[in-house]
Structure formats: structure tokens, C-alpha cells
Amino acid sequence: MKILDEKRAPNPRRVRVFLAEKAIAVPFENVEIMTGAHKTEAFAGLNPVQRVPVLVLDDGTAISESLAICRYFEALQPEPPLFGRTPLEVATVEMWNRIAELSFFLPVTHCFRHSHPAMSSLEVPQVAAWAEANKPRVSDIIRTLDRRLSEAPYLAGERFSVADITAMIATDFMKPTRLAVPEGVPHFARWYAEVTARPSSKA
User: Fold this and answer.
1) pTM here?
2) How many CB atoms lie within 10 A of CB 110?
3) Quick one: pLDDT at residue 122?
């Protein structure tokens, strides 16, 4: 078993943080995406959309998409539960993870991919206007998350979950994207300080 990974990319980091929370050790193999190592025919045989991360099992089965990989390990090792325990917890984690992914992580990614010079060869065409259009969306969702975090310590409630991992990765990815957290979000700031203090955040 191994995970095809890229140390600088945010999606593989979601898996690394998740595994660190579970105390699961899996070997990682770096795929240098900036040189196009993920665009080979061999890599496409593992993941037809040619993205990292990819979990390759001992029998050669390949599982791509970071959340699918996390769900695989959650099923293997349910404790600590990062996708919830009860039906209500599972649904609440899913809801907040989707909000964090679609309304926060994705706009940050659009800003990076469509504005950073290093991405010009991978994001063709780069559309600068699309990057600009997503900037206010990032600030808006952070304010929404701040209101949620005024009600609970973590996005899905009382326990740290995969939703917090997604939102933390999105927040960290704002730095290379040159986006700033808006002012006046004390609950978001408290939450961010707490989640980044967890040992898993260094994974």
C-alpha cells in the first residue's frame, strides 16, 4: 500500500492530516506535478483524471480523490470518528465538509490556479477575471463560518472532523494565493488557532 502524493498540493495534505489524526502510517511516494509526472499514460491508468492523491492498495487497486481515500481509512479504523458516529453527526459533518469544500476550498483554488504564474502551464487557459471573481467569495464564506463557529467549537459541532481539516487546508492555501482573512472574524480566528495547534496540522 502507498499513496501517490505531492507535498505542496493542498488535496494530498488533507489525506496526510486525516491519517495523522488516525495515527495511521502509510508510505508516500512523491509525484512531481510541476514537471508533468501526473500526465503520463501510466499515471492515467491509476487515475484517469490525472490528479493526486492516489491510494494504491497491495493488489493494485487505485482509489483517487482525497475524501474517498479518507472514507476508506475511516471504514478501516473508525476511531477517532472524523465523519461522525450517529446518523445526525454523519449528516452534519457531510454538510459542513461540503460547505467548506465547495464554498471555501474551491474558490481559493480557483484564485490560485488562475492567478499564480507557476500554474500557467497547468491551468490552460488561465482566466485572471475568474480569479478576481472568486476573491470576494472567499471573504464571504469566512464570515459565514465565523457565525457558525460562534455557536460551536468546530464546524460540525463539538468534535473535530474532516470538515475542519478541509477548512484548515483552505485557510492555509490562502497564503500562497495571496489572500487575506477578513477582519472582524474572532470565532474563525479562535478556531484556526486551535486546529493549527493540533499535531496533525504539521502533516
Assistant:
1) 0.94
2) 20
3) 74
